[in-house]
Amino acid sequence: AQSVTQLGSHVSVSEGALVLLRCNYSSSVPPYLFWYVQYPNQGLQLLLKYTTGATLVKGINGFEAEFKKSETSFHLTKPSAHMSDAAEYFCAVREGGANNLFFGTGTRLTVIP
Amino acid sequence: NAGVTQTPKFQVLKTGQSMTLQCAQDMNHNSMYWYRQDPGMGLRLIYYSASEGTTDKGEVPNGYNVSRLNKREFSLRLESAAPSQTSVYFCASRPTGGYGYTFGSGTRLTVV
Description:
The structure holds 2 protein chains of 2 kinds.
Chain A: E1 3-7, E2 10-14, E3 19-26, E4 31-38, E5 44-50, E6 56-58, E7 64-68, E8 73-78, E9 87-95, E10 102-103, E11 107-112
Parallel strand pairs in A: 2-11
Antiparallel strand pairs in A: 1-3, 3-8, 4-5, 4-9, 6-7, 7-8, 9-10, 9-11
Chain B: E1 4-7, E2 10-13, E3 19-25, E4 31-38, E5 42-49, E6 56-57, E7 64-68, E8 74-78, E9 87-94, E10 102-103, E11 107-111
Parallel strand pairs in B: 2-11
Antiparallel strand pairs in B: 1-3, 3-8, 4-5, 4-9, 5-6, 7-8, 9-10, 9-11
């Protein structure tokens, strides 16, 4: 069965500091992995995805994530936080061929000026 | 702009009332989905439609019905609303063979 665990429901970083949001998944087959961002009172926007191939994937707004099969992880990073990065971030997994996208419970990122 | 459109954006219902949430996409996607978002629980799948004419239950289908009216439209109906259905509802779509889901902006539903 698929599941997603996001460590830390709230993360605070200083502006300019490294952003690290953690995601671990479980899947019985090679998964497709996603990070979405949600700004207040808005829908979800795709940040990046891993399907196959290169395990380090780059997304929008300077974010990137690395698929580590041995650790069943897909952590999201950004070298330097910006005030505009304050939002809620969701990790999600889908097994190939399946229709459901399973979401983690989300991490709210606060950026301190 | 191309995308997923949900109506209404906000709704307050009394317990026992019924309503239909509307969703339409103009990207010619085959698959459409309804999720609900609750604090601390992420998004959970209510129903999905892999193609026009088909619908299937997701994780939390109880209390809901859906209709895939045509390729563009996928509606979610609450026959007898309950306070436990207070949530934010998101519709999403995905092309066949595609990986990414496109989400609408959501419907915030309160049942009192």
